[in-house]
Amino acid sequence: MAHVPPFTPDPRLFPFQSRWFESGVGPVHYIDEGGGDPILFLHGNPTWSFLYRGIVIRLKPKFRCIALDYPGFGLSVRPDGYGYTPSEHASVVRDLVRHLDLEGLTIMGQDWGGPIGLRVAVDEVDRLRSLVMGNTWYWPLDDWQAKAFSYVLSMAPMQSQIVNKNFFVERIMPIGVKHTLADEVMEHYREALPTPSSRVGAAEFPRQLMEASAWLGDLEDAVRERLSNVPLLLTWGVHDIAFGKQYLERFREDFHMATVRRLDAKHYIQEDAPGEIAAAISSFLEAGQSKRSSAT
Fold first, then answer.
1. Catalytic residue numbers?
2. How many separate helices (H) and strands (E) can be counted in the chain?
3. C-beta separation of 227 from 125 below 8 A
4. pLDDT class of 143 with cuts at 50, 70, 90
5. Which domains, and CATH codes, for the chain?
6. DSSP secondary structure of 29-50
């Protein structure tokens, strides 16, 4: 059966050509805009590549900007037999990176895009140029707030709210931004998860906060071993109640070449501060290019 996307984004808000990668689990939607050194943008929950529209539109004159939707999100396939685990998502992303044969790659991740992107970075380190991380993590969660969040949202009543009432879009997203999202923006998040059956992936992510602890433990070890000397830009929303200062500092402990750009933003930094993030990425990558050029 042919893959039919749940809706067509408004080109005034999402002025990009939709592309599909025939992954091992079915068609995965992505955009590939601009030219130059590639930047891969990875979303979290319950978002999709639409989240990065304001950053991509600003960076594509200088960089090749790629953003995809994991299976079960955005315009991608909802495959039968798929578990919606971060490990599976990372495998799909890794396959796309290899398919596009990306070199000199920068990976940006936020929310679940952080651990997913860092897993890909570890596995494809020879392709890697740098990293951009914002309000995310890569280790087994050990603070009580995160454990409580995962426990409550994994219980049957909240799983029902996520699946049947689109709780993440309707309740979590509005409190995760400092600036109220426009109605047409909210509609693009709603239409990407239009039915209960389409929200299985969004419901699984909070369960995976604890279920994926062993996977995250392996990732933490691999990050420390293989990525500690990779240049890292941290674009961090300082008003995020979920990923506070202690998360930022943990990155700075493990990465020896970390630059910090603090943002007047909550959790969904791409909605609150796209201009500031794009400017920080551009400056960060251009500074790195200058250093490489002077060394040759």
1. 111, 240, 267
2. 13, 8
3. yes
4. confident
5. 19-295 (3.40.50.1820)
6. EEEEES-SSEEEEE--SS--GG
